[in-house]
Design a protein that fits this description.
two-stranded antiparallel sheet, about 35% strand, 10 strands, mainly beta, elongated, about 15% helix
Length: about 150
């Protein structure tokens, strides 16, 4: 993958004793509505690289060489969709907008030619994970100086 950005955050809601909202709550009410936090993880990355295979062995019988790309980048435009496989009748997931154009953008090697490795990219990924959590006093943990977090 070319680029990856990962991050996380933690935001304490301003509700409860000593906070902007509900600063004068009784202790029992503070344990119910106070100490809440929102946290999350953010992950973005470009698509993983993969290569085409020509099913040809022009250099040696141990090396299946990559297919040769003809340079038509519009033919390999990513457009993930579902199609029914004509041979099996089952749905399959297609990476390219037009499978026939994508296949036509590659040719097999001639002589000692070989295509480039990892010349294709899968779909990019944006992943967001969020969740609430509450920190509240636990009498046993407080004696040992350990905060208790309930998620």
């Amino acid at each position: 993958m070319n680029q990856a950005i990962n991050g996380d955050y933690l935001y304490s809601l301003p509700v409860g004793r000593g906070k902007s909202f509900g600063s004068n709550l009784p202790k029992w009410a503070d344990e119910v509505v106070g100490g809440w936090q929102l946290s999350g993880l953010v992950n973005w990355r470009t698509g993983l690289a993969f290569q085409t295979v020509a099913n040809a062995f022009p250099i040696s019988f141990a090396n299946n060489v990559p297919a040769i790309f003809n340079g038509n980048t519009s033919a390999i435009k990513v457009g993930i969709h579902q199609e029914v496989n004509a041979a099996s009748g089952f749905p399959t997931i297609q990476l390219f907008s037009n499978q026939a154009n994508a296949l036509g953008a590659f040719s097999g090697p001639l002589g000692l030619q070989a295509g480039s490795r990892n010349n294709l990219r899968g779909a990019a990924l944006l992943e967001l994970r969020h969740g609430p959590g509450q920190t509240f006093p636990d009498q046993r943990a407080r004696r040992h100086g350990v905060p208790h977090r309930c998620v």
